[in-house]
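Try this one yourself first.
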């Protein structure tokens, strides 16, 4: 098991290694395996990349983001411009049923709402908006439409987890209640945890994933 100091060194190195992240503007603190990032960044996309970098590091049990997005002068846009850019981005994505997604922008924060058919569409909507100039944050309030579920949904999910991550699947319990799937058990890294949640969220008929997985380094 890594010490907090070792984790801090690894996280700092991963941030410096990650393209698109200005590691010089990020402070790193670690306590009991929980990593806290602090400082200011120029874009929301950079904030997302920084979080993803930390989650890749083995031994990290959790991430706290105390990062503020302060847009560079050349990236500042008014809310109307951001809203129009977001609508255009959604319209141009083949993964998004854009006619069912609404956009609201306040002080650079984009709120997405509406109803889609599948979990991957909910994720795709946020991915469209995240890298746009002028965006300071994204609130994803899009709801996944309930579907008639296959009777063997639990078995299908278990099989998918085994295909994607055999070691982790052995320690994950799956509970299905309607379209809500709860995952319990132990994984060995945030990366494994994210992979399990992502696999389940992509399953047809799943409207929400409740993540109760514990990361044990």
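Now uncover the answer:
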């Amino acid at each position: 098991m890594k010490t907090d100091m070792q984790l801090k060194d690894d996280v700092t190195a991963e941030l410096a290694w990650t393209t698109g992240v200005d590691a010089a503007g990020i402070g790193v603190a670690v306590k009991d395996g929980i990593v806290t990032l602090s400082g200011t960044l120029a874009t929301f996309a950079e904030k997302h990349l920084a979080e993803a970098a930390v989650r890749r590091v083995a031994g990290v049990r959790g991430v706290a983001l105390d990062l503020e997005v302060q847009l560079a002068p050349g990236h500042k846009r008014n809310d109307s411009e951001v809203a129009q850019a977001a609508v255009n981005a959604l319209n141009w994505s083949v993964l998004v049923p854009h006619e069912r997604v609404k956009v609201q922008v306040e002080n650079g924060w984009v709120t997405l709402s509406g109803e889609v058919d599948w979990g991957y569409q909910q994720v795709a909507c946020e991915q469209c908006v995240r890298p746009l100039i002028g965006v300071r944050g994204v609130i994803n309030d899009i709801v996944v439409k309930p579907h008639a579920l296959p009777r063997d949904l639990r078995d299908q999910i278990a099989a998918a987890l085994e295909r994607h991550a055999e070691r982790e699947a052995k320690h994950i319990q799956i509970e299905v209640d309607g379209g809500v799937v709860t995952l319990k058990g132990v994984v060995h890294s945030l990366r494994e945890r994210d992979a399990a949640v992502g696999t389940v969220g992509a399953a047809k008929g799943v409207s929400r994933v409740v993540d109760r997985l514990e990361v044990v380094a």
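Discussion: The mean pLDDT is 91. Helices lie at 4-17, 44-56, 79-91, 119-129, 153-164, 166-169, 190-201.
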